[in-house]
Write a structure and sequence with these properties.
By secondary structure, the chain is an alpha+beta fold. It has two domains: 2-43 and 174-277, no CATH class; 66-153, no CATH class. The protein has helices spanning 2-12, 17-58, 170-182, 188-216, 224-250, 256-277, and strands spanning 66-75, 78-86, 91-100, 106-118, 123-135, 138-149. Strands 1-2-3-4-5-6 form a six-stranded antiparallel sheet. A hairpin with a 5-residue loop joins strand 3 (91-100) and strand 4 (106-118). Helix 3 (170-182) packs across helix 4, helix 4 (188-216) packs antiparallel against helix 5 (224-250) and helix 5 (224-250) packs antiparallel against helix 6. The mean pLDDT is 82.
């Protein structure tokens, strides 16, 4: 109540509303910078240590993964396929790897009975392989029982926890998204939302500050309780709407950038409308 009375008193004494906004926006700027730094550099490091602790002392077994018909792009123009994969033994069955030229023509193809991660060499080993290489009109065939190959993919990629994004700083998140796009992952939107949200959330500080000041700048017929209720409603509806709009991006209905920023755009419009009717 004192907060509302203080603002009204300053406006009644001749202080312009625009001048009143400056110190509050300066405070919002400090909060936004602090929030951005925490979300992108401090909290991810703490989350990484927390998840490592859980893996060692809390979880009885690693995150399991068993998938079928796995398609991934591991390098430019290089694609792999596994009929099935299990991270219990780090083995993928009915493995195939195809390399294409920039024009889309098949350059080479490797197939094998299965592929297994070698923990000693930190490489994949293909068993009972068959390689077909095409160079113009010439084709060569190579067969063997075992061959080591280096792929831009690791066993941990198949057992990644859903909240792994919370352990990455901004640079790590950008690199991870680029890698996932290269591999043709189908859940990139989740990480895109995380990246855009780390910029949208600090910006919301200015919007909510503007809404809060405009609601407090004049007396309401129902008293200060009406203003507090309106402020709480707008704050919680903003959070709800941000979570709701993100689901459209995950489903592919709208771009992730638009989904994350729609709440900011909508509530910025609300803040501007409230500002226009606020006493100047």
């Amino acid at each position: 109540m004192a907060y509302n009375t203080e603002i009204i008193a300053m406006l009644s004494n001749g202080m312009s509303f625009n001048r009143l906004l400056w110190p509050y926006f300066l405070g919002a700027l400090m909060i936004a910078i602090f929030t951005f730094a925490m979300n992108n550099f401090i909290i991810p490091h703490a989350n990484k240590e927390r998840l490592e602790f859980e893996e060692v002392y809390y979880r009885n077994s690693p995150v399991s993964f068993t998938g079928r018909n796995i398609h991934k792009q591991v390098l430019p123009n290089v694609y792999i396929y596994m009929e099935s994969y299990s991270n219990i033994q780090d083995v993928g069955y009915k493995f195939a790897m195809e390399e294409f030229t920039d024009s889309g023509e098949l350059k080479s193809k490797m197939i094998g009975d299965y592929i297994k991660w070698d923990t000693t060499l930190n490489k994949w080993t293909v068993r009972n392989y068959y390689i077909r290489k095409i160079e113009g009109m010439k084709e060569t065939i190579e067969k063997g029982r075992q061959i080591d190959t280096t792929l831009n993919i690791f066993p941990s990629d198949f057992a990644r926890r859903d909240n792994i994004k919370s352990t990455m700083n901004l640079q790590e998140l950008n690199l991870f998204i680029a890698q996932q796009k290269l591999q043709g992952a189908d859940n990139v939107e989740v990480y895109m939302i995380e990246r855009y949200g780390r910029f949208a959330m600090p910006f919301s500080t200015f919007i909510l500050t503007l809404i809060g000041l405009t609601l407090s700048s004049k007396k309401a017929k129902g008293g200060i309780g009406v203003q507090i209720g309106a402020g709480i409603f707008l704050s919680f509806s903003y959070i709800f709407f941000m979570q709701f709009s993100s689901q459209f991006a995950i489903s592919g209905s709208i771009p992730s950038l638009l989904a994350v920023w729609i709440p900011n755009i909508l509530y910025l419009i609300i803040g501007i409308l409230l500002y226009r009717v606020a006493p100047k």
